[in-house]
Amino acid sequence: MPFENNIPFELYVFFLIWIGLIGSIVGSFLNVLAYRIPRGMNIAFPASHCPKCGAKIRPWHNVPVFGWIILRGKCKDCHEPISPMYPIIEALTGFFWVLASMFVFPMANNNFTLWALYSIGAGIALSVVWGAILVWMNRIKD
Ligand SMILES: [Zn+2]
Predict the structure, then answer these.
(1) SS3 content of the chain, % helix, strand, coil (to 5)
(2) What separation in Å is there between the alpha carbon of 74 and the centre of ligand 1?
(3) Termini Cα distance of the chain
(4) Ligand 1 geometric centre to CA of 95 (Å)
(5) Domains of the chain: total
(6) Are 108 and 115 spatial neighbours (Cβ–Cβ below 8 Å)?
(7) Does the predicted TM-score (pTM) go above 0.85?
């Protein structure tokens, strides 16, 4: 039985939700890399802005997946569409982190700390590969 151990089922589920949110934040960062690296832009400055009108993205519109939904895929200022690739890549990355965490669970020997460390390690490792693929594909278009 997978849950006869010292990681209660509630903690298992809670941690998977948490790791999924972390993954979606990483996905948001990968979107920035995938857009900026092929264009030779600085990856940190300027802060997130609309590629069409240059308006700054408000922090609550920069929340992975939900920001795009709140905006209904359009810039708040110029109403130009924002690529659905942004929330799709954020959600996919979150999902990959959850899968990676479930994958390493049996290796953690019922030790929560070990599982958390393995999960974060696996998430980072796959994000490096996934991020490189995204940059290479350069799928994010204006
Ligand atoms: Zn705009």
Answers:
(1) 65, 5, 35
(2) 8
(3) 49
(4) 29
(5) 1
(6) yes
(7) yes
Q: Give domain status of residue 123, yes or no.
A: yes
**pLDDT tens for residues 18-50?**
999 999 999 999 999 998 988 889 988 888 899
Domain hosting residue 99, numbered range: 9-45+84-137
Are 33 and 42 a contacting pair, CB within 8 Å? no
CA of 50 to the centre of ligand 1 (A): 5
With CA atoms as reference, report the closest residue to 92 among 64, 125, 62, 128: 64
Dist. CA 99–CA 20, nearest whole Å: 9
Distance 84 CA to ligand 1 centre (A): 15
